[in-house]
Amino acid sequence: LTVLNAGRRYLKAEDLSGKVFVTSGLGGMSGAQAKAAVIAGCVGIIAEVDEAALLKRHKQGWLMEISSNLDHCIARLRDARKKKIALSLGYHGNVVDLWERLVYELDTTGELLVDLGSDQTSCHNPFNGGYYPVQLGFEEAKQLLSTNPGEFRTLVQESLKRQVAAINRLADKGMFFWDYGNAFLLEAQRAGADVEKRGANKTEFRYPSYVQHIMG
Question: Which of 1, 14, 15, 196 falls 20 to 30 Å from 151 in CA-CA distance?
Fold first, then answer.
């Protein structure tokens, strides 16, 4: 319902076939995102750093495909989008790399390959494993978290700023992004990312919350 209503509200579309939804997280509640994309009929690309979570969702049948290759992900996205095939593709990697690759595609081809975007990493707990920084691999990041949590925190905040910069670039070209109630925008703001709403007070963000805008 969230994905369908996002399409209705932001894209003015009842039919999401050929539309692309990019997000991250396939763990707990976020694991339903892959299934939601297919039910809604769109192309869902969901990034996840933990291979165990990816394999679990694939085994359950909630996730149709898995790839750790961004070139392959972009090729599959383009093909499914063109043919209007419902697809849930799990990208085994950091969502920041995925967002930045979509910016690269925009800059080099002029194509905006994503229509809807969100995030379901556990940003209510970003410095204790809820969000992994793009600068390190999963295992390397876990090790840093245990040996130097202060450095881990710094990398997380840098990563959040990079993620928001890429999202802002795509949103400026017509992608619609929303907050999934996971404190992503709040932690991005605390990290110094550009998420504040222009001309509003500092408690208002440039992107809406699904509770108020989509489910309400």
Answer: 196
How far apart are the C-alpha atoms of 78 and 27, rounded to whole Å? 26
E-strand spans in 31-123? 43-48, 65-67, 87-92, 116-117
Q: Across the chain, what does the average pLDDT equal?
A: 94
Structural domain for 50, as ranges: 1-215
* Number of domains present in the structure of the chain: 1
91 CB-near residues (< 8 Å, 6+ apart)? 45, 46, 47, 48, 67, 68, 70, 73, 98
What would the pLDDT profile of 33-56 be if each residue is shown by its tens digit? 999 999 999 999 999 999 999 999
Tokens of 109: 């081809």
Distance CA 110, CA 173 (A): 10
